[in-house]
Design brief:
heterodimer, A: alpha+beta, Immunoglobulin-like, 2 domains, four-stranded mixed beta sheet, 2 helices, about 30% helix, B: mainly alpha, three-stranded antiparallel beta sheet, about 55% helix, binds iron/sulfur cluster, binds copper (II) ion
C-alpha cells in the first residue's frame, strides 16, 4: 500500500476517534444531591457520577478545618467552615471526567486533596485509548515498511 | 553525520561558550536563588504553597526542567546548576580559570579516584528512591525541602574535597540520574567533530586538563607557519591571533573523555572541553530526537533507572492526582505502618512488578543473548515512554498550581509582603481545557516513540520487539486511566 495514503487514512481515523460526537443515550435529567465530607486531605465520597443535564447539589461538610471544593472544567467552587454545611448547585452540562479539589489552603497536602466527578461517560479516556491503538496500528506496517526499505538500500 | 546542525559554528555561540563569564553570570544568579530557597524554607511560612522554596523548586523549576530543559536540552540544566559549584571552586582553588598557575595547581582536597565498584548509577537510583519515598512530605513542607537542598549542596562540597572531579554529579545526585537517562532523547548533543584529530591529540587536555600555554601545540611551536619566523614570532600580540585562551582549562569535570562520547548520559554540558580542546574539535549539535537510543544500553543499572522513573511517574499520578485519600495519608505520614506498607508497595512495583512483567514478556523471545542482556537493551524503549509519562503527569500538576508562582514572587516568605503587587493573586488552574488533550498527545506520542525505540533496540540485538511494545501499551493504558 502506498504509505502516504496509509498515513492520511490513519490521520483521518485519528480525527474521527478524537472528535466524532459520542452517541449519548439521553436520560431524563434528574436532581441529585451529594453530601461530601471533607477532612485533611480527602473527600468522602471522593468519586461520584451523574448524568449529563442533571442538576447537581453538593453539600460540603468539613470535619476539621476550612475546606473548599472547586470543580475543574466547570470553574465553580464552594467553601465550608468546620461543622457547617455549605452547598453548591449546578447543572452538569459538560460531559466527561473532572477532578474536584480543595481551593482553600488547608495544610501540607492541600494541593493534592482531590476527588473526581464523572458526568456521563469519560469519553475522552476512551478516545485516548482509541488513539493509542490507532497509533500502534499505524506504526507497525509503516515502520516495518521503512525497515524493509533500509534493508533494500543496504 | 549529515543530519546534524552544528551550533558552535556560529562564532557568537562559540565565543559565548568559550568565555567563562556568561556561564559564571548565570551560575551566580542560580546560586543566589538556590541559597535564597534554602533560607526561605527555613525562615518563611510553613505553608508550602506560600513559600518560595516549595513554589519555586517544585512548581517553577520542576516545570521548566521536565517540560522544557530535559526534553529539548538534555543535560542543559546541569550546565547552569548551582549545586556542584561551591565544591568545584574549592577543589580548583579558583572560580574562573587559573590564569597563570595552570589547571592542576592550588586545588584543595584529596582528589581520590572514585571507587571502582561504585562507578555506576546505583547510588543515584537509591538516592532518587529515598527522596521519592518521602516525596509527599518533601513536596509540601518548606523546611524539609530546605534541608534536602542544603544537604545536596554540602554533599557536593564534601565529595569534591575527597574525590576528584564532580563525584556528586556523576554518582550521587538524585536529579542528575534521571536527567542523564532522559537527556539521551534530547535533540542536542556535545560531540567531537573529527575522531582522527583526537587520536593524534597530544596529552588529551580535554580529559587531563591543560595549563595556560601560549600556544596549543607544543610540537608545532617551532615549525612554520607558526614558529621560527612564523606567526608566533610576529610582533602581533598573541591575543590578537586568538591563541591566548586556546587551551587553558580543566579536564572534564564529569570524568568523561569527550573524544569517546557516544551518548549524552554522563556529559554534563559544562562546556569545559570547548574551552580546553586546543584543536577546536568540540561541537554542540542539533540532531534528531533520541539519537542516542539507536544504540541500546547494555547496563543493568541504567535499565533499572528506566524502570524506577517509569514506575515513579505512574505511582505519583495515582497517589498525588488520584481521588484516593487513604493513599495520600499513607504517603504523607512517614514512619507510620501505613507508610511502610506504601514504601514496600512502591518498591515492589518498581523492582518486582514492572520488571517482572517485562521479563515475562521477553522470556520466550528468540535471541542469542542472555536474558539479562536482552533486559538491559530492551529497557531502552522505556526511556521515551517514561519521559512522556513525566511530562503528562507534570502538566497536570504544574498547570493547576502555576498561579502560586505569582503570589510567591511578591511574597516569597509568606510574611505578608507585596513586592510586585501580585501577592494576592487568586489560585486558579491554568489552561484546564487543553490539559487532557495535551496529556493524551504526550502519552500516545510517547507510546509510538517507545515502540519505535523498541524496534530499533530489538533489531540491534536481533530479537522481537513485540513483547516490549505490548508492555509499553499496557503501561500507557494505566497512565491514561490514572490521568484522564
Ligand atoms: S548532576 Fe545534579 S548536582 Fe550535578 S549539575 Fe546535574 S542536577 Fe546539578
Ligand atoms: S577533544 Fe580536543 S583535546 Fe580532547 S582529545 Fe580530541 S582533540 Fe584532543
Ligand atoms: S568537559 Fe566533560 S562534561 Fe563538560 S561538556 Fe565536555 S564532555 Fe561534557
Ligand atoms: Cu485544602
Amino acid at each position: 500500500m502506498n504509505s502516504r495514503f496509509f498515513l492520511l487514512l490513519l490521520a483521518a481515523a485519528g480525527l474521527v476517534v478524537a472528535f466524532a460526537p459520542f452517541p449519548v443515550q439521553s436520560i431524563a435529567p434528574q436532581e441529585r444531591t451529594f453530601r461530601i465530607e471533607a477532612r485533611q486531605f480527602a473527600y468522602s465520597p471522593s468519586e461520584f457520577k451523574v448524568n449529563p443535564g442533571d442538576t447537581v447539589t453538593i453539600q460540603l461538610v468539613s470535619a476539621d478545618v476550612v475546606h473548599g471544593l472547586y470543580v475543574d472544567g466547570y470553574n465553580i467552587s464552594v467553601e465550608a467552615d468546620p461543622g457547617q454545611t455549605a452547598s453548591l448547585t449546578f447543572i452538569a452540562d459538560k460531559p466527561g471526567s473532572f477532578r474536584f479539589r480543595c481551593n482553600v489552603t488547608c495544610g501540607a497536602m492541600h494541593p493534592f486533596m482531590i476527588g473526581r466527578l464523572t458526568v456521563g461517560t469519560n469519553s475522552w479516556l476512551f478516545r485516548s485509548i482509541g488513539l493509542a491503538v490507532l497509533g500502534l496500528i499505524g506504526f507497525f506496517p509503516f515502520s516495518f515498511h521503512k525497515e524493509r526499505m533500509l534493508v533494500e538500500k543496504r | 553525520m549529515s543530519n546534524r546542525i552544528e551550533f558552535t559554528r556560529s562564532p557568537f555561540i562559540k565565543n559565548a561558550l568559550k568565555s567563562r563569564y556568561p556561564q559564571l553570570a548565570v551560575f551566580i544568579v542560580m546560586l543566589i536563588g538556590y541559597i535564597f530557597a534554602i533560607l526561605a524554607g527555613l525562615i518563611g511560612t510553613p505553608v508550602g504553597s506560600r513559600n518560595f522554596s516549595i513554589v519555586f523548586v517544585w512548581i517553577a523549576w520542576w516545570a521548566i526542567l521536565i517540560l522544557v530543559a530535559v526534553p529539548f536540552f538534555g543535560r542543559g540544566w546541569c550546565a547552569v546548576c548551582p549545586i556542584p559549584l561551591p565544591g568545584e571552586w574549592l577543589q580548583r582553588g579558583a572560580i574562573l580559570r587559573p590564569e597563570r598557575s595552570g589547571a592542576k595547581s592550588k586545588g584543595r582536597g584529596l582528589n581520590l579516584r572514585w571507587p571502582k565498584s561504585l562507578r555506576n548509577i546505583w547510588m543515584q537510583n537509591i538516592s532518587f528512591l529515598l527522596l521519592a519515598l518521602f516525596s509527599s512530605v518533601l513536596l509540601t513542607t518548606p523546611n524539609i525541602t530546605s534541608i534536602v537542598l542544603a544537604a545536596m549542596l554540602f554533599a557536593a562540597i564534601g565529595l569534591s574535597m575527597v574525590f576528584e572531579r564532580r563525584a556528586f554529579c556523576r554518582y550521587l545526585c538524585p536529579v542528575g540520574g534521571f536527567i542523564g537517562l532522559y537527556s539521551q532523547t534530547a535533540p542536542i548533543e556535545l560531540r567531537i567533530k573529527n575522531k582522527q584529530v583526537c587520536v593524534t591529540c597530544e596529552g588529551k587536555p580535554c580529559y587531563n586538563g591543560a595549563s595556560t600555554l601560549g600556544f596549543p601545540l607544543r610540537g608545532l611551536r617551532d615549525t612554520p607557519p607558526f614558529g621560527k619566523r612564523g606567526l608566533l614570532d610576529s610582533p602581533l600580540p598573541r591575543r590578537t591571533l586568538g591563541l591566548r585562551s586556546a587551551n587553558s582549562g580543566y579536564g572534564c569535570p564529569w570524568d568523561v573523555f569527550p573524544g569517546g562520547l557516544t551518548k549524552n548520559t554522563y556529559c554534563g554540558l559544562c562546556m569545559e572541553c570547548i574551552r580546553t580542546c586546543p584543536h577546536d574539535n568540540i561541537a554542540i549539535n542539533l540532531r534528531p530526537f533520541s539519537a542516542d537510543l539507536a544504540k541500546p544500553s547494555t547496563r543493568i543499572d541504567e535499565a533499572f533507572k528506566a524502570f524506577i522513573m517509569l514506575g515513579s511517574a505512574m505511582i505519583y499520578a495515582g497517589v498525588l492526582l488520584g481521588p484516593w485519600g487513604a493513599l495520600k495519608d499513607a504517603a504523607y505520614n512517614v514512619g507510620t505502618s501505613a507508610w511502610f506498607t506504601y514504601a514496600v508497595v512502591f518498591l515492589a512495583i518498581i523492582f518486582v512488578i514492572l520488571p517482572g512483567f517485562f521479563t515475562l514478556g521477553i522470556l520466550k523471545t528468540k535471541s542469542v543473548l542472555s536474558l539479562k542482556q536482552r533486559f538491559a537493551s530492551l529497557a531502552t524503549a522505556l526511556i521515551p515512554l517514561g519521559l512522556m509519562f513525566w511530562v503528562a503527569f507534570s502538566l497536570s500538576f504544574v498547570l493547576t498550581n502555576a498561579t502560586y508562582i505569582f503570589a510567591s514572587l511578591s511574597d516569597p516568605l509568606g510574611l505578608g509582603w507585596n513586592l510586585f503587587g501580585t501577592a494576592n493573586a487568586a489560585w486558579q488552574p491554568m489552561l484546564i481545557s487543553v490539559l487532557a488533550p495535551a496529556q493524551t498527545l504526550a502519552l500516545v506520542g510517547g507510546l509510538i516513540w517507545s515502540a519505535r525505540t523498541a524496534q530499533k533496540a530489538a533489531s540491534e540485538i536481533k530479537t522481537s520487539s513485540i513483547p516490549v511494545i505490548i508492555f509499553c501499551f499496557a503501561a500507557t493504558l494505566v497512565m491514561l486511566w490514572l490521568l484522564l
